[in-house]
Amino acid sequence: MTELNSEINKRRTFAIISHPDAGKTTLTEKLLLFGGAIHVAGAVKSNKIKKTATSDWMEIEKQRGISVATSVMGFNYNDYKINILDTPGHQDFAEDTYRTLTAVDSVIIVVDVAKGVELQTRKLMEVCRMRNTPVIIFVNKLDREGRDPFDILDELEQELKISVRPLTWPINIGAKFKGVYNIYENSLSLFQPDKQRVTDRVEITDINDPTIDQTVGSDDATKLRDDVELISGVYPEFNEDEYLSGKVAPVFFGSALNTFGVKELLDCFIRIAPAPKPIQAMEREVRPQEEKFTGFVFKIQANMDPNHRSCIAFVKICSGVFRRNESYLHVRSGKTYRFSAPTAFMAQKKDVVDEAFPGDVIGLPDSGIFKIGDTLTQGELLHFKGLPSFSPEMFKYIENSDPMKTKQLNKGIEQLMGEGVAQLFVNQFNNRKIIGTVGQLQFEVIQYRLLHEYGASCRWEPIHLYKACWIESDDDEALAAFKRRKQQFMAHDKDGRDVFLADSSYVLQMAQEDFPKIKFHFTSEF
Ligand code: G4P
Asked: What pTM was estimated for this model as a whole?
């Protein structure tokens, strides 16, 4: 095997996603502990934004600053190089998470056993489904009272719209929680609350081994056998190919805080999770094993230092080997650049690296050349697609409040939108600029950054909109007729595509009924 192939096969790049508070940070930390990347619990700072701070975005940005360090965490485990891509917990930054999901090969979803599937998880799962991303589910907090595991499985299937297959099974829950039985490997792990140490496994031959009765008591052993029998009756055998194609999600139970059930998860993960996969570019499919380097920017993180505008562009390596100081083509601008200080992320440190392989993420210092979705190659004109925009939830007109600074304002808006802070729509009728966001916070972020980084001041004016829909039709005449009728509500997105801005759900529904030949899309990827 060539060196490149063996590097690729070693890599597992994934994201952990959850509704805030389900235990994403805790699980991340425990995985790092197993990898020896950190040595004590509590070392990983949550990039979770404290609920109390929602009205003070400077505070939030400070907290978010932490997430530069934890944006990507690499560690080695059993000869594998594992890259965890972190995702912001705060829902106002959901777009960041969507984009991060375009850079991973698989996902672990954390669900709180008491709360079940929550809103944010449902939304993120939709993104995974769109891309057929393989998903493993970790049901967390078994040390606390929660729901019946069978009910949780039903809920996972219904709410996440994916088939599930438990690979471990809990023995009781809450105060009576005794451990998990590993269906996959026929082993038993007994629960000993311990925040630092890994729990030992009990060796058993199979589910009928009397050792189980001796260790957990015969009542619980009987219940476990009944449950496992029911599981094998109800759920088909776990099939790896179905997992890899995103059709079935294996489910694990445990307690991240107690480092319990986490090793089972990790051991299974490295066995079944995919190595870097081919990625579809507009022009062709790019295989990781190709000799020539390609990569794309999926995230841009602004620096908190208000004195100089500098960012880090996160580049996912898709094929070949990225080398420091080599010239690469920045496809959008047609210019070549060399990068003398690319950084890689191991645990929570970032270091300058000489080379990086498919599946890796590197940080490139950016003084404004990059936009989200930009492609770097060794000369090929390639465009990676699949960085979807979703219809924003909130809209406002952005107006210039200092006529002397029009240029600065336009430049600022362009760059901030390029970073993916929010979405810009330009009304086709009156040319007014409309900014669409997922939450109120982004408006504050934009106003502040325009002033401090570009010296431009803006003000917001209300506009009442329900949703932005990307429209298309096979019938040019129908499309033209629609645009004429709705001309006051038509806009262009950043790529010049037609977007219909519906001001209420009723208007949208009527438009869908009146114009059956028009297709309405709620994401830009269709
Ligand atoms: P998040 O990143 O998904 O938002 O969740 P995070 O890991 O920060 O966990 C949220 C809370 O749940 C934390 O408590 C954490 O200690 C707790 N937790 C995580 N896993 C488990 C578990 O297996 N069992 C129990 N009982 N609790 C768990 P917190 O009080 O909000 O924060 P902290 O002060 O403990 O850090």
From this structure: 0.84
